[in-house]
């Protein structure tokens, strides 16, 4: 039995009364919170003990109990706190945030939002109006907690912060915060992940809690609690906005536009505490005022941490470069933002390497101190923060107007209608003004047809457009120089995350730029817009044809297969009756082979998917395969299995399942990897191995089982590092090899330190370079790549690449580079471009450029009646590589039709 702690600690009221707290905590076996100075709180406000029966920091609070506590606060102080529901998780858990402030500030929340919207757009709010707003509006801070479900302390710190603000109303600091600001608290960004963590953690606790890092309490089972239901790292989802948690949060923040945003996290238990200033590199589209304001917050944090004897650090790690974090996205509407990281107890107690016990309440306390310190800074700097926010909007518009090369980004929308529409809607969701042309537009020597999309960066969100649409965002030269130096010294680089993320590249869309604005009135894209499907000749007598090549056609296919519609796919392009050309992969739904209501079904499917469908009254093909040709294949609804659990990468498994289920609209059966080793897979047509280290999880016996299934007609798809497993010589599923790094030192004879001989022949060194040369490891992997966008060339004469342009963009991550497959075994269907062209966006080591050039990206290997389809890099990373979706659709849905299995 787990006994609840019955101690009810006293809470602190002012940020200046925390003296000697840390020392007292180390000397006492009681909760350190019990040693806080005795201050008076409003007894009408319930504390955590009153509502939940345990003291703050004495137990990891569940999602349900967190909701109960905030509900009790709202009932006790309805004039000072208002709770909003902003969404629901995949597993049905409620997402909330609370607004806390003075009676006047809470009563005027609607007016506050209107004021911030006005302040956000100098095109409608001139300087005089802005000055009046700045004089009247409160400041605002948004504190977001526990985006990673196993980073547990911040939710309890959120509860503690809310209670302190409401119950400690006589305290000078609290009065200042409540009067001069609104504190928005998002107490639990990832309820599904937290619930998974809590269930795993408390199910492993025995007679007493253990601090030993070796115990089950401190070693979560796959997939751990970090991610949400679909196993997304939601701190990386702010760019693609794929998850409901992110969607609701962004909509809420766009509504209120908080001036300072803090994302509270946890890190390793042997660390201390991190807050701004951030590490290098910093995104060049952030402003100096934003950097200065978040450093102002950091200085105040440091003051309070020093007063309490709390260790902390800044700048060492956690950069501000990638715009898709919870602490970087807000900067591109004008906020100052930062991440905070506290050493994690990953439970109720954790024994550090220094021998001290880190208790859960210690971590909660530090996040609480940082939260209140931040709120204090915001309240103290109300006018400055509002002025800087308005000036950010002014400067963003001016920066767009002065950009003579990329003022306007134009999506001509000549191909991939669904992709263009989705990207336009995505940018609208981010808060960007996106327009669709209603007439022909002439711009920089080009004429664009009605229906094209364009974004003018001369708008408040112009910097966000610039950082997400331009092909290249450079890290500073000094930072790059330092990384190259470190690499030369084998110290490892300091690049924290991807360095390339251009949305048009990841969507594989055509985009033009111009240094002039667009004239004329055009239609503003809105979130209520839909991609309209259309069926021409809806009462066709022979067939319906869906041109292949975008996600609308893909959604039509998956929905049609699930409804039992008989569909063929054409391996090659064809021309119907000397009139209309249809690309390879186009779908053919013949009237004669379907039920009598096929016309109604096709219309409904077109409406549902947004696809364009042509009804035809003839099957006369004048070029390419006829409807009854051997180059047209009848498709069937495949049953898909996917490896799940260790040693599969949870991120890869989650994003892949999400793409197939939520973007393609097709179910996936997740099978634990250990089960796959000897499972009877005869009822499955497709097996997907997401990235992972399968040598131990499947081994030779598991590989042999899969190999027999493939040879009998199965389609095996490997993604990223799963291809390493398939290519292992002992596994024998794929006839390629993983390459070691190329080197110009291959002629150097290095003494073998593993040789049993105790001595070697002596040699003299004349310079330090000789030492470096003889220290080299001649059999090492290519240098690790944190994530870049690479240009990929595509074979245009294979069914697996039907509907895919000749050039696409993929993400390169890690250190895997593979040899080409020989024609005797299969085909290389997509490959990286040459050394000078391979890099599309980001920073790539020169040696990797050279070695990656012309190496395979997509490999097809027939095997018996089935086949292996290998992606050497992951096409589903973060579900934001939309430009590769058709390639994955072909692998999943066209491949089974090409397997040689008796029907």
Question: What report would you give on this structure?
Answer:
- It contains 27 helices and 37 strands.
- Strands 28, 29, 30, 31, 32, 33, 34, 35, 36 and 37 form a 10-stranded mixed sheet that branches. A 7-stranded mixed sheet has the order 1-2-4-3-5-9-6, with helices on both faces.
- β7, α11 and β8 form a beta-alpha-beta unit.
- α8 crosses α12 and α18 packs across α19.
- The radius of gyration is 29 Å and the shape is globular.
- It starts with 20 loop residues before the first helix and ends in a 5-residue tail after the last helix.
- The N terminus is likely disordered.
Summarize the structure.
By secondary structure, this protein is of the alpha+beta class.
SS-derived structural category: alpha+beta
Could you name the ranges where pLDDT drops below 50 across 5 or more consecutive residues? Answer: 1-36, 746-751
Determine the mean pLDDT: 93
Question: What is the distance, rounded to the nearest whole angstrom, between the alpha carbons of the first and last residues?
Answer: 58 Å
Helix-residue proportion: 25-40%
Strand content: 15-25%
Task: Sum up the overall morphology in one term.
Answer: globular
As a whole number of angstroms, the C-alpha radius of gyration is: 29 Å
How is the biggest beta sheet arranged?
A: 10 strands, mixed
Number of alpha- plus pi-helical segments: 27
Number of strands: 37
């Amino acid at each position: 039995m787990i006994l609840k702690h019955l101690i009810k600690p006293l809470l602190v009221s002012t940020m200046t009364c925390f003296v000697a707290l840390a020392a007292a905590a180390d000397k006492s076996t009681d909760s350190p919170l019990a040693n806080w100075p005795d201050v008076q709180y409003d007894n009408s406000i319930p504390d955590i003990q009153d509502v939940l029966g345990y003291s703050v920091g004495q137990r990891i609070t569940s999602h349900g109990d967190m909701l109960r506590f905030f509900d009790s606060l709202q009932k006790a102080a309805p004039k000072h706190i208002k709770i909003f529901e902003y969404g629901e998780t995949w597993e049905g858990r409620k997402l909330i945030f609370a607004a806390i402030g003075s009676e006047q500030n809470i009563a005027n929340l609607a007016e506050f939002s209107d004021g911030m919207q006005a302040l956000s757009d100098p095109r409608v709010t001139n300087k005089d109006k802005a000055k009046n707003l700045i004089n009247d509006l409160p400041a605002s801070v948004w504190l977001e907690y526990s985006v990673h479900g196993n980073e547990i302390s911040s939710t309890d710190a959120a509860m503690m912060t809310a209670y302190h603000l409401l119950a400690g109303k006589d305290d000078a600091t609290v009065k200042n915060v409540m009067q001069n600001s609104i504190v928005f608290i998002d107490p639990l960004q990832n309820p599904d992940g937290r619930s998974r963590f809590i269930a795993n953690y408390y199910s492993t606790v025995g007679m007493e809690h253990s601090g030993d890092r070796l115990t089950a309490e401190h070693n979560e089972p796959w997939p751990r609690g970090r991610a949400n239901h679909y196993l997304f790292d939601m701190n990386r989802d702010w760019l693609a906005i794929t998850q409901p948690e992110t969607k609701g949060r962004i909509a809420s923040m766009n509504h209120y536009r908080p001036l300072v945003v803090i994302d509270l996290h946890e890190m390793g238990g042997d660390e201390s505490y991190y807050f701004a200033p951030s590490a290098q590199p910093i995104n060049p589209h952030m402003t100096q005022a934003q950097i200065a304001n978040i450093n102002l917050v950091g200085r105040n944090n440091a003051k309070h941490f020093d007063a309490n004897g709390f260790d902390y650090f800044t700048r060492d790690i956690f950069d501000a470069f990638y715009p898709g974090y919870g602490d970087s996205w807000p900067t591109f509407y004008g906020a100052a933002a930062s991440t905070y990281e506290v050493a994690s107890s990953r439970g109720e107690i954790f024994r550090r390497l220094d021998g001290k016990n880190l208790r859960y309440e210690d971590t909660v306390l530090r996040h609480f101190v940082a939260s209140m310190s931040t709120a204090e800074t915001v309240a103290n700097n109300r006018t400055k923060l509002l002025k800087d926010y308005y000036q950010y909007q002014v400067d963003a518009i001016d920066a767009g107007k002065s950009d003579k090369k990329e003022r306007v980004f134009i999506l001509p929308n000549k191909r991939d209608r669904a992709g263009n529409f989705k990207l336009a809607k995505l940018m609208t969701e981010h808060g960007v003004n996106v327009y669709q042309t209603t007439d022909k537009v002439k711009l920089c020597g080009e004429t664009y047809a009605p229906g094209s999309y364009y974004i003018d960066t001369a708008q408040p969100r112009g910097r966000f457009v610039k950082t997400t649409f331009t092909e290249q965002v450079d890290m500073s030269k000094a930072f790059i120089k330092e990384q190259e130096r470190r690499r030369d010294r084998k110290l490892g680089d300091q690049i924290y995350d991807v360095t390339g993320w251009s949305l048009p590249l990841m969507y594989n869309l055509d985009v033009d730029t111009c240094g002039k604005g667009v004239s004329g009135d055009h239609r503003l894209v809105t979130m209520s817009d839909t991609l309209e499907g259309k069926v021409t000749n809806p009462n066709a007598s022979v067939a319906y044809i869906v041109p292949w090549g975008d996600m609308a056609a893909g959604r039509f296919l998956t929905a049609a297969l699930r409804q039992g519609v008989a569909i063929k796919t054409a391996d090659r392009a064809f021309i119907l009756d000397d009139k209309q050309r249809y690309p390879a992969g186009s779908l053919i739904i013949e009237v004669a082979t379907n039920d009598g209501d096929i016309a109604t079904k096709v219309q409904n499917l077109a409406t549902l998917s947004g696809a364009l469908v042509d009804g035809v009254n003839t099957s006369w093909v004048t070029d390419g395969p006829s409807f009854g040709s051997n180059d047209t294949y009848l498709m069937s609804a495949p049953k898909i299995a996917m490896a799940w659990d260790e040693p599969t990468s949870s991120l890869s498994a989650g994003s892949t399942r999400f793409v197939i289920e939520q973007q393609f609209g097709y179910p996936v059966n997740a099978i634990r990897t250990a089960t796959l080793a000897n499972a009877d897979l005869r009822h499955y047509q497709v097996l997907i191995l997401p990235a992972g280290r399968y040598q131990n999880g499947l081994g030779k016996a598991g590989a042999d089982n899969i190999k027999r299934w493939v040879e009998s007609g199965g389609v095996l798809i490997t993604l990223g590092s799963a291809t390493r497993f398939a290519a292992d010589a002992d596994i024998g599923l794929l006839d390629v090899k993983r390459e070691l790094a190329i080197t110009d030192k291959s002629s150097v004879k290095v003494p073998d330190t593993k040789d049993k001989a105790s001595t070697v022949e002596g040699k003299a060194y004349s310079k330090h370079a000789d030492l470096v040369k003889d220290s080299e490891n001649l059999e090492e992997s290519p240098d690790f790549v944190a994530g870049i966008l690479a240009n990929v060339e595509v074979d245009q004469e294979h069914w697996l690449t039907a509907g895919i342009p000749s050039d696409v963009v993929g993400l390169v991550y890690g250190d895997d580079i593979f040899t080409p497959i020989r024609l005797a075994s299969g085909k290389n269907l997509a490959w990286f471009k040459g050394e000078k062209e391979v890099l599309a966006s980001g920073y790539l080591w020169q040696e990797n450029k050279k070695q990656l050039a012309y190496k395979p990206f997509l490999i097809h290997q027939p095997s018996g009646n089935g086949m292996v389809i290998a992606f050497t890099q992951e096409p589903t990373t973060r579900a934001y590589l939309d430009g590769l979706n058709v390639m994955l659709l072909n692998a999943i849905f066209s491949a089974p039709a090409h397997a040689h299995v008796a029907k």
